[in-house]
Automatic annotation (TrEMBL):
Full protein name: Helicase-associated domain-containing protein
Stretches that traverse the bilayer: none
Residue ranges of domain Helicase XPB/Ssl2 N-terminal in the record: 579-701
Region feature (Disordered): 1-25, 519-558, 742-762, 776-796
Domain WYL: 802-864
Keywords of this entry: ATP-binding, Helicase, Hydrolase, Nucleotide-binding
Signal peptide extent: none
Molecular function terms from GO: helicase activity
Listed Basic and acidic residues bias regions: 1-11
Compositionally skewed regions (Pro residues) per UniProt: 746-760
Xref: PROSITE patterns: WYL
Amino acid sequence: MTPEERSRKEPPGTGSGAAAPRSLAESLRARDDVSLSALLRARPDLITPVPTDLTQLATRAATRASVVRALERLDRFALQTAEALAVAGDPASYDELLGLMAGDDGPEADPVVTEALPRALATLRDQALVWGADDRLRLVRAARELLAPSPQHPSPTGLGPTVAEAAAGMSPGRIQEILTAAGLPTTHDAVSAMASLSGLFSDRARMSALLERAPAESLEVLSRLVWGPPYGQVTPNPAPRLRWLLDRGLLLPSPRSSASLEQGRPPSPGTVVLPREVALHLRSGRAHRHTEPLPPAVEAAGHRPQMVDATAAGQAYTALATVEELLKDWDEGGPSVLRAGGLSVRDLKRTAVALDVSEPVAAFWVELSYAAGLLASDGEADEQYAATPAYDEWLELPPAERWTRLATAWLTATRTPGLVGGRDAKDRALSALGPGLDRSAAPEVRHRVLTLLAGLAEGASPVQESVLTRLRWERPLRGDRPAADDLRTRLAQWALSEAELLGVTGGGALSAHGRALLGERPDHTPAAEPTGPGDKLPVHRQHHRPTPHEPLTAGEQTAAASRAARLLAPLLPEPLDHVLLQADLTAVAPGPLQRPLADMLDVLADVESKGGATVYRFTPASVRRALDAGRTASDLHAFLATHSRTPVPQPLAYLIDDVARRHGHLRVGAASAYLRCDDDALLNEILADKRSAALRLRRLAPTVLAAQSDPAVLLDGLRAMGFAPAAESAEGDVLIARAHAHRTPPRTPPEPVPEGPPTPDATLLTAALRAVRAGDLASTTPRKTTGAPASGGVLPRTTSAETLATMQAAVLTGESLWIGYVNAEGSASQRVIAPIRVDGGFVTAYDHTADEVRTYPLHRVTGVAELADDQL
């Protein structure tokens, strides 16, 4: 690529033809607003709080904490480029960088690297990690310290220190001996000796000639150190193959010895290091053994898109049914809240059994309900979990909209159900709904995984390992952690499985409603149609969203959820208004039921089995439950006749009539409790029954028995004996036992824990850029001082009298002033103002920094100076 082609890819002021900036601040000052906005979006920590000027912005961008965050967001090739600059000269030329990345042969050696390098360098410049023209590229100091080799932190490139760094502690005599053994003339000082030795090791021709004379055993030693780590151990009397290398400086004593003393460790006099220049010669100039300029492709097998959408829709319906079943099970109050917060292991197991799923899957549904605001703790004395009022509102929504509520909550939640059952940093167990489950990277990883799936052809199901490999390229691992222990890898694995459970994907492929949920707008380019389930499909960029890592705005999210609901709605099964009654006292629901029918059946019958069809079983207890809820036998007969596509079986009719005939014949009220019945023979039967002894009944009248148990215990005891009593009020009316739905007070869903400062929106960026530009103008504009001469560009101090006089003069002349100002919080800033009025200890002025008229107390103005005549 020619310099002209490269310059078209570079930000303003960075090409070799532009005036070379002398600092990062000058480099930022040369950028336009579009470039600065891109920097602040990519590194939002730089804008929190808004810097006063570009110098402060540059200082903040070069801090270690900010640089670490920026490096962690680089892809593998951009990071490799930064690592190469860390071991290059400071400053380095573009050609030197190209040699480190592509090898000494340049474009002919690796044209892919040559083509990709300008883009990677542009990324580093955009992120303010690199500044300077092509002939003077500089990596910010904090990045160089993080990536360059040192005894404490080995370089990711596997390179060691330079010759000069490694030989810094050697005696001058020993250095001259090395020059003589290497065939170089001796010098008068160590500095020129190191320069001579470095020149030899950096000269490819002379270095090749030196190594041609090396014994094969010595070359074998170098080959073991060339790709790192560059350190080795030698004995006090090294073997001849090592002595040959030590004599010529191809192995030098390691600076680790002095570093060990500084850190309180015993020195390692036998440690040697391969100098960086020697390693680069043996590597043919490459900084890395393997450069990865292109992202690895995501392998995928093809399925029909219609099948994927149908599978995902079926799973979406199952997700809705599972959440409803979970919260219905907790309708009258769920498990208790642990003292430390969260759900106990025993309660999680019970929930898993009730939902007929594994415990990790049960934890996912519980956490999803919590993230969607449908579940919370009630906050009462005996604190327990229960549905929120939002759950009742959610139930009234159409099924597709209910699903989008769940899916949107899942996409943005930072709580990570996959961690349930693990241990935290203090070795405490992590429980469902408990503390310690938030991982700020979770939403970004979920979104990135789904974006990768959206980049495949429709119906393509990716190989999981290829997805993880791609994600590791986009966010390389730092340190020595294996891939299996990396949190982002585990988050990606959980995202794939959770997307399948939720119905975002079907058979591993992203569904149409899942694409819409991401805010993707499909192109009209037809996707390649697979011919079989084993076909491999390449990555296909058929959706356009320019910055997939950025979250959707609130408006975009609402529009995306609406599109997803419209796509999903036709695929969900229509609720049915009928069941099939069978002679064995069961009813079969061949599909989802309309809500009034389903609610009534839940009272009148017990669920026996689930699946594609739900089987309900009628029992005396279930019929009595319906009668207790206020239904009569005629109501139940009419209900079944209306909603059954088959005639009501005779056994079921007999069961209803038999239970209804006995229901309410006995009446239980509060005395502690009493039992009355018009049939005194029935009361005699109860008194004679040995099972009634625990109830401690005694006769008060021929038709009334008293009990020392409360009414609820008396009701349960009589029902256990086979009777069908009914409760009554103090007025003698039958009490209708309706199910009590326990609800928490209004609750808001848990707020996601952000990963650093949020990405600024357009309004904030515009205001911040205006403030930074104005502050920079105030700090760099030439001015005339009214007090003592300024030193180092610092605002001079002026007395109160001088400040007042200068302000009053500026009101008369209309001149602008440069002031120092300290606000009520004690924060100092510099401003350019045009005074309009001075009155009562205040100055009213047009503030060029804020672009508005403001009033300032004069006692908070620390200094004032007139601007130069040619400014503003």
